[in-house]
Amino acid sequence: xxxxxxxxxxxxxxxxxxxxxTESGELFSLRFVDRNSPMTEEQRPPRQASPYPPLPxxxxxxxxxxxxxxxxxxxxxxSGFDLAYHHTGGPFAEKVYSEVSRIPPGxxxxxxxxxxxxxxxxxxxxxxxxxxxxTLLIIIPCHRGVPSSGGVGNYRDGTRKKGELIALEKRLxxxxxx
Length: 178
What we know:
There is one protein chain. This protein is α+β, with helices and mostly antiparallel strands. The protein folds into 2 domains: 5-74; 91-173, Orthogonal Bundle (Arc Repressor Mutant, subunit A), CATH 1.10.10.10. It has helices at 57-74, 91-101, 111-117, 124-132, 159-173, and strands at residues 5-12, 15-22, 27-33, 109-110, 145-146. It has a 3-stranded antiparallel sheet, covered by helices on one side. Strands 4-5 form a two-stranded parallel ribbon. Helix 3 (111-117) packs across helix 4 (124-132). The chain is globular and about 50 Å long. Its EC number is 2.1.1.63. This is methylated-DNA--[protein]-cysteine S-methyltransferase. Keywords: DNA damage, DNA repair, Methyltransferase, Transferase. One of its GO terms (molecular function) is methylated-DNA-[protein]-cysteine S-methyltransferase activity.
């Protein structure tokens, strides 16, 4: 069976983000998109008839909630998210995502520290791989995982964007958040 999905682009302080949601209302992708990519929904001229089916009510609710929560996050008023989402990682990735979600905004942990926290002290590379596969940027804060060797490490949407997110959180949330 083919999964029906909808996407929507919105501008936030660090750039345009593309949200993708299933018909049942599960967010399955959130990432930054290049400003030179296709126009956002707000920029598109109105059409006489849409070739796409209307957005299901549950999907619309999740997109609206995602936008609201991201606005609060970028304003320093929200450090966690309350959204229905779906990720494609297995049990190991689930442990990694759960652990990285416990890292307070404005702080980072090395891949090794995350591996130790989930009881897999020799799995630092696997932790980095799980974080690299994350399709729900910010919601699952993979940017808070960094290499032991220094620097910010790789990021799905570029090391510059990862550094910007870490700096933004330090500025907005300090080194701890309730």
